[in-house]
Write a sequence for this structure.
């Protein structure tokens, strides 16, 4: 699989990372060689193999339905780059 | 007195317990040494005031029954520490101060340890040379301009340079064992689920494990004992009783069956590595172990598998760094979407962005089956390789790395050659197994090399024992000269 | 509106079209704490006060699942007659939004906890079965508030991480009426089960609506559009009407319908395309590596099954059989668990049919008028039963009963006490009544003559006189009988 600039544009949009066109070229080159490396996997027939769902064989543990968290607004907001007393603040969404 | 920092952790603990030295004096020794060793760039953050205060507190009211009584130590900057900056080696978290403590660090503080500082690492633990850190390269004390390995490069460097008596790192594809091998130290990646992942900045959730990095196998057993334990806050934490690894450490390995996988003799592997491996085999044989040739046929596919699974998980794990709740936010951008794109473009370094993009791609519509699903199937095969052989053998011996430490910048422009560093360590993470890297010798440049012992699930005690016996008979001396201060 | 034939079709220029509707209902699970964290789920709390480090996705935070949410999903699955999957998987649905702190929503994609099931609707044209495709558990997002500040959006994460059940129907619905009945039925079932409070104003029940149209008689489905996040039945109905017409108009003009996500604009009563969301539609689902597959044994399902309450369909059958109600009455009286409980309490102590009539008539009118739930009714089931019994035994007339009822609303008193203290008891002694009627006949000889001559309308005059003199308390049946007898004589 060769990765071209259009693919870079598409996935960087999905990943919400802006990539300028200068970087896009070298990135395309790197990713192409990485995917070539990754595609060694196509040598193996995995038709009858179940994908690994978890490395652990234990069942999922659950917790009781108790309220034992929250009420820490100050802590939650403390590290935010933009906030007021009650909310996180972000630039407007333009649809 | 500076001789003291040369000592192993277990010896220092004895000195404290025998009241030969106070925690405060010990702490001061390390503080002085760290202050003079800035050139290595091993520390991102130091907490000297905190360490001094805590050591005084310990001396006033010492508890000598704890595992790490009054021991100052530094940890990889991937562990969230309450009230102390936790950067993950990234600009994104340059000023992030958590108000919570990771379970693993909490566990060691409870055993009496004291936080000295936070150690440099590759950005979000993505790297094998510590060159991706936003806070600059870390130098390997074995030689100027040499990398300490990665991603726990700061931890390995600090340990080898005696800037901490022991430390903890995280290992997703070799990030503890490879730097341990590069610096002549001991590093253990526990069974997936033995140490809680709660409060550790996540890279790839199904692979990440915290583990000890120490100067000796005995130190390693003490640290592991302090770190490990069931944590109900981590759904992948294994529910089991705590073990006394240090107390149960023994050197008798007679009759143990050690597997030697033929697939670990890779193309273009330096002769020295092969010789070192043979040296290891001979030592174990002399100690009464039986060597058994085994085959792990899918070994070759571990690295390609890893470079699908880990970036896929990372692309999702790192989506939370969006400039809203904490961390860096770009001032550019006219709306929310542009703010995201600029924040993530400016806040992440090149390697992190590369991996996020790989991960995004392998999960994207139309490619999921061909890449991600395929990789999870191959991962199953890799795990089965191990499962089948662990019926026949008790542990597996391999080299830790395909080379010794390399020069800074040597592999920076070739991602694949950088990734190949983890060729021997990655299969273990994919299979969730425990493995330890022990120093075994020096190459002709005088750089250390390590051997890796891979164990069965939750069989940490056994690989510690084998490593312990090996260490006693290997006659390895890490001769690090202080050239930097 | 009593149609006995289904007749919802959209007329195009040349053809009639039927409307194909499927719903994805998001129902908030009733639980104390969130799906993966211990924060509270209460509605209307201070902004960001019910948020933990997990809900706000701090580095290193991990999810641990709430047992009760699993149980609630299983209960709901059982209530929908659905297959419960002992093995299910939590996946991450990846997308960026200000109110999605993790950058992904934990949901279930390929392996949901509940599989196929069905819901029975009672339509005027007969009963209709709606297929359920699946039910899965997922996290709710937070809330973006756009209207406080002109240049910024405020984010409140109180809702972030609350457990939702997404219930996906098959495309079996054919009209806004059926959508109404379906949502109400789902709501009733979940309220019976206690798995969702169904409060649409508070957002506990929302839906995405999939709409397509096809020529009557066609077998193939048309291209569908998804209308996102509509939070009232009325708006759903309006959106469907608009969207179906829009699609038929496009077909008439020979244009293609593009499969897309649309938004319903309440003010303009129209749907419009959300094009900006389209390119971000690649959700990159994959199993959440922070969690293990969910696996439970059959015993858990069996135990939950045993503890389920009687559900509305069963209860309706029983009401018809045991209390002699017709299907319509039974339907109304099982529509809410509280109503059915009220009815059963009243019916057990009085005439079952008459109790139903009074509940569905005067009681519901009064509650509706006052905007009260039945649980807040000023008239208790026990008191209503006594009132009904007093009518049935002939102690008071229906007309007096209405007066007693009015007093009961205000005072909340027992009807027995009201009847006694106000002397409202019916006069049912034939001798007394005969005496009264004879007096009236004697005073109105002329009218008696006219009556006998054939002016039968005058009968009403005599009844009126009796009621006037008795203060309305004369037993009307007896009055009729005695009057007829004496007027003949």
């Amino acid at each position: 699989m060769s990765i071209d600039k259009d693919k870079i544009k598409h996935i960087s949009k999905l990943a919400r990372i802006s990539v300028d066109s200068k970087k896009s070229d070298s990135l395309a080159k790197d990713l192409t060689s990485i995917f070539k490396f990754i595609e060694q996997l196509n040598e193996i027939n995995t038709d009858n193999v179940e994908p690994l769902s978890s490395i652990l064989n234990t069942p999922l543990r659950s917790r009781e339905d108790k309220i034992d968290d929250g009420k820490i607004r100050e802590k939650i907001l403390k590290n935010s780059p933009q906030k007021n007393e009650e909310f996180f603040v972000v630039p407007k969404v333009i649809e | 007195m500076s001789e003291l920092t040369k000592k192993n952790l277990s010896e220092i603990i004895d000195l404290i317990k025998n009241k030969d030295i106070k925690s405060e004096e010990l702490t001061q020794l390390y503080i002085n040494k760290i202050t003079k060793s800035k050139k290595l760039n091993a520390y991102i953050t130091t907490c000297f005031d905190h360490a001094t205060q805590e050591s005084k507190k310990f001396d006033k009211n010492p508890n000598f029954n704890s595992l790490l009584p009054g021991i100052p130590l530094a940890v990889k900057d991937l562990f969230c520490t309450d009230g102390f900056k936790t950067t993950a080696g990234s600009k994104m978290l340059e000023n992030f101060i958590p108000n919570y403590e990771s379970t693993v660090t909490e566990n060691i503080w409870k055993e009496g340890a004291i936080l000295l500082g936070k150690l440099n690492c590759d950005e979000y633990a993505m790297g094998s040379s510590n060159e991706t850190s936003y806070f600059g390269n870390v130098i390997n004390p074995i030689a100027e301009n040499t990398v300490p390995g990665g991603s726990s490069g700061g931890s390995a460097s600090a340990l080898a340079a005696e800037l901490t008596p022991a430390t903890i790192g995280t290992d997703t594809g070799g990030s503890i064992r490879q730097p341990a091998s590069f610096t002549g130290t001991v590093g253990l990646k526990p069974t997936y689920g033995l140490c809680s992942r709660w409060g550790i900045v996540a890279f790839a959730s199904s692979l990440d494990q915290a583990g000890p990095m120490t100067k000796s196998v005995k130190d390693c057993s003490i640290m592991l004992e302090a770190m490990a334990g069931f944590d109900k806050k981590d759904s992948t934490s294994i529910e089991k009783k705590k073990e006394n690894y240090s107390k149960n450490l023994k050197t008798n390995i007679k009759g143990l069956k050690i597997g030697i996988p033929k697939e670990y003799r890779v193309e273009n592997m330096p002769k020295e590595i092969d010789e070192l491996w043979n040296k290891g085999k001979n030592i174990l044989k002399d100690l009464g172990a039986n060597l058994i040739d085994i085959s792990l046929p899918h070994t070759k596919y571990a690295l390609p598998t890893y470079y699908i699974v880990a970036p896929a998980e990372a692309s999702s794990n790192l989506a939370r760094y969006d400039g809203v709740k904490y961390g860096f936010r770009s001032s550019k951008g006219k709306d929310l979407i542009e703010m995201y794109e600029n924040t993530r473009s400016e806040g992440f370094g090149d390697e992190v962005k590369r991996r996020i993009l790989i991960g995004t791609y392998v999960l994207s519509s139309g490619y999921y089956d061909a890449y991600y699903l395929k990789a999870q199937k191959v991962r199953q095969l890799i795990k089965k390789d191990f499962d089948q052989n662990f019926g026949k053998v008790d542990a597996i011996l391999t080299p830790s790395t395909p080379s010794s430490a390399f020069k800074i910048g040597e592999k920076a422009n070739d991602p694949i050659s950088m990734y190949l560093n983890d060729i021997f360590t990655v299969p273990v993470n994919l299979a969730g197994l425990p493995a330890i890297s022990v120093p075994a010798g020096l190459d002709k440049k005088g750089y250390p090399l390590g051997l890796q012992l891979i164990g069965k699930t939750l069989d940490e005690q056994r690989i510690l024992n084998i490593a312990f016996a090996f260490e006693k008979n290997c006659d390895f001396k890490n001769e690090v000269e202080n050239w930097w201060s | 509106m009593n149609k006995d034939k289904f007749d919802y079709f959209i007329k195009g220029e040349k053809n009639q079209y039927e409307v194909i509707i499927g719903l994805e209902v998001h129902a908030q699970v009733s639980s104390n704490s969130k799906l993966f964290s211990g924060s509270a789920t209460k509605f209307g709390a201070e902004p960001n006060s019910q948020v933990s480090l997990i809900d706000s996705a701090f580095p290193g935070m991990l999810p641990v699942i709430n047992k009760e949410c699993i149980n609630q999903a299983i209960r709901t699955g059982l209530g929908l007659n659905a297959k419960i999957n002992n093995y299910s998987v939590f996946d991450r649905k990846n997308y960026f939004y200000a109110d999605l702190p993790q950058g992904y929503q934990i949901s279930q994609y390929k392996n949901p906890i509940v599989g196929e099931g069905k819901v029975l609707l009672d339509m005027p044209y007969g009963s209709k079965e709606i297929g359920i495709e699946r039910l899965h558990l997922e996290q709710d997002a937070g809330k973006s508030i756009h209207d406080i500040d002109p240049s910024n959006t405020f984010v409140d994460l109180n809702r972030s991480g609350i457990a939702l059940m997404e219930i996906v129907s098959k495309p079996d619905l054919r009209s806004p009426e059926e959508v109404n009945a379906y949502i109400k039925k789902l709501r009733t079932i979940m309220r019976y089960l206690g798995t969702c409070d169904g409060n649409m104003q508070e957002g506990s029940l929302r839906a995405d609506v999939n709409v397509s149209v096809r020529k009557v008689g066609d077998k193939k489905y048309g291209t569908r559009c998804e209308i996102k996040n509509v939070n009232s039945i009325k708006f759903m109905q309006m959106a469907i009407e608009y969207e179906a017409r829009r699609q038929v108009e496009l077909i008439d003009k020979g244009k293609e319908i593009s499969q897309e996500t649309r938004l319903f604009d309440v003010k303009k009563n129209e749907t419009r395309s959300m094009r900006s969301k389209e390119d971000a539609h690649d959700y990159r689902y994959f199993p959440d590596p922070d969690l293990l597959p969910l696996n439970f044994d059959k015993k858990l399902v069996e135990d939950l099954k045993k503890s389920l309450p009687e559900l509305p369909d069963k209860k309706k059958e029983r009401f018809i059989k045991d209390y002699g109600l017709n299907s319509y009455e039974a339907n109304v009286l099982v529509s809410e668990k509280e109503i059915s409980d009220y009815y059963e309490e009243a019916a057990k102590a009085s005439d079952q049919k008459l109790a139903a009539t009074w509940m569905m008539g005067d009681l519901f009118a009064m509650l509706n008028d006052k905007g009260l739930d039945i649980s807040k009714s000023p008239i208790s089931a026990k008191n209503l039963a006594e009132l009904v019994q007093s009518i049935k035994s002939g102690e008071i007339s229906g007309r007096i009963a209405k007066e007693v009822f009015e007093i009961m609303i205000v005072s909340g008193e027992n009807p027995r006490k009201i009847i006694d203290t106000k002397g409202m008891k019916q006069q049912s002694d034939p001798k007394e009544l005969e005496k009264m009627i004879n007096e009236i006949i004697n005073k109105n000889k002329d009218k008696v003559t006219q009556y006998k001559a054939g002016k039968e309308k005058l009968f009403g005059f005599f009844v009126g006189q009796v009621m006037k003199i008795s203060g309305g308390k004369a037993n009307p049946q007896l009055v009729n009988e005695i009057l007829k007898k004496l007027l003949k004589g």
Remarks:
- The longest strand of chain B covers residues 435-442.
